[in-house]
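re: that chain from earlier
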Amino acid sequence: MKIEIRNVRKSFGKIELFHDYSAEIPSGKMTGIYGESGAGKTTLLNMIGMIEPYDGTITYDGKEVKTRKERNRMLAERIGFVFQNFGLVDDLTVEENIRLMKCMKRKGKREQIPAVLKKLGLEGRENSIVYELSGGEQQRVAIAKVLLKNADLILADEPTASLDERNKEFVMRLLRNCVDGGKTVVIVTHDKEIIKQCDVIIHLKKDNNRGDI
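^ sequence. v structure.
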């Protein structure tokens, strides 16, 4: 999925974070959003993910999402999120967390869960309570949700920040596999080693977010 950002403006009160900002995110690549704290990395990711309002235009494969119905369909079917805090319900099981997704109501989806978990090194963990899992395992569950959704666009906000080196490498390898499979991956990170693994880099500068790539 190709993303085009055109003349986007975003303010928080009197603070203008983005002013006529434009950028492009190519399809089938891993794009890293990099920059100092307060430059708007997560805000940009959330605007792309349609969970943060803005002025301007963002298109997806050349189309602008204009209605609530279109937005809900995109979020349910084409966009997947991977967050630093994993985005899971701690006191539910792995399978219960996965079944919360709307896409799991589709025929045959539930039967895919064991195979995806096995691929991520979580074989037989369907009934494990999330809070019993390590941070690396929880992040894998979050990625399992994205894989089961079969999202075209994967938005990852500091997905390795709370992980040790072994799990960091594992997660980045999974995201690279998604790109190799034709997905578009966008990662927010402050980690220079992670940004080196990206195909495209968007470097945001505080008070100067006008499209530097």
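The chain has a mean pLDDT of 90.
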